Amino acid sequence: EGADDTNTEVFVEEMGSEDPPFFDPAPKNVKSYPSSDIMLETRVRGSRPLDVEWYVTSPGSSSSRPVPRDTDKYLVHINGSLTVRDVGDDDRGTYLVRASNSAGSATQEARIDLTLSAAYGQWTDW
Fold first, then answer.
1. Which sign does the torsion angle of CA 54, 41, 110, 37 carry?
2. How far is the CA of 74 from the CAs of 24, 70, 91, 112, in angstroms?
3. Distance CA 94, CA 48 (A)
4. What is the pLDDT at residue 69?
5. How far apart are CA 88 and CA 84, in angstroms?
6. Regions of the chain where pLDDT drops below 50
7. 108 to each of 44, 62, 63, 105, how far by Cα in Å?
8. What region does 90 belong to: left with phi over 0, alpha with psi -120 to 50, or beta?
9. Nearest Cα to 112, choosing from 16, 32, 26, 3?
């Protein structure tokens, strides 16, 4: 009696590849006067969503501590940059920024150092 013919076409759409994070530009070392506001400027690129975390290692320390997000002292911007307000001796050190997404992770470092303080008349380099 009649045969049922069924044709099936399958289209496979290749999903867009995930781009791992990278920094363009990378943050640069900053030397500032005490009590200044400074920015470690960067731009994190890559596939969204991106998770950005900052860590700081103080001079003479071998361990890093996380930089708190969005406080009166620290502000992590949407592009990944970090603002440190009212920079003081405790803010000196090496700052590491880590960006991650489902495709991978990337890190960059920059230093914050203090220069001659007009208020104290002494060098605070390390």
1. negative
2. 21, 6, 10, 14
3. 27
4. 87
5. 10
6. 11-15, 126
7. 10, 17, 16, 11
8. alpha
9. 32
Beta bridge partners of 105: 100
Q: Give the separation between CA 77 and CA 40, rounded to whole angstroms.
A: 10
What are the residues whose beta carbons fall under 8 Å from the beta carbon of 82, sequence distance 6 or more?
Answer: 27, 39, 40, 54, 67, 74, 75, 76, 95, 97
Q: How far is CA 105 from the centre of its chain?
A: 11
Residue 14: the pLDDT is 46
* pLDDT, tens digit, 9 for 90 and up, residues 13-22: 444 579 999 9
Query: Mind listing the pLDDT tens digit for each residue in 72-84?
Result: 999 999 999 999 9
